[in-house]
Amino acid sequence: MKRVKARGVPVLVYEPALDAPEFFGSEVTRDLEAFKSRCDLIVANRWGDELADVAGKVYTRDLFRRD
Questions:
Q1: 54 phi and psi, to 5 degrees?
Q2: Sheet holding 22-23, edge to edge
């Protein structure tokens, strides 16, 4: 996140379990649909079926969509 933000790219964090309005200075949302519509690019640790409708803008280390 630090490297991306240092280049001037705004970061929106999706985390339904986090009650804080910010995480390391980035806005936090708990609304997945709003998150998906507001983001041009989504970086995810793991693939989830809830990302299928925006698969074209998801980048993940989970190449085989199983871990």
A1: -125, 30
A2: 12-14, 26-29, 22-23
At 7-51, the pLDDT tens digits run 999 999 999 999 999 999 999 999 999 999 999 999 999 999 999
Q: What is the pLDDT of residue 67?
A: 65
- Per DSSP, the residues of 27-64 read EEE--HHHHHHH-S-EEESS--GGGGGGGGGEEES-TT
Q: Which run of H or E residues covers position 12?
A: strand 12-14
Give the integer Cα–Cα distance in Å for 67 and 59. Answer: 14
Residue 63: what pLDDT? Answer: 74
**Integer CA distances (angstroms), 15 to 7, 21, 26, 32, 35, in order:** 23, 10, 12, 9, 10
Residue 65 has pLDDT above 90, yes or no: no
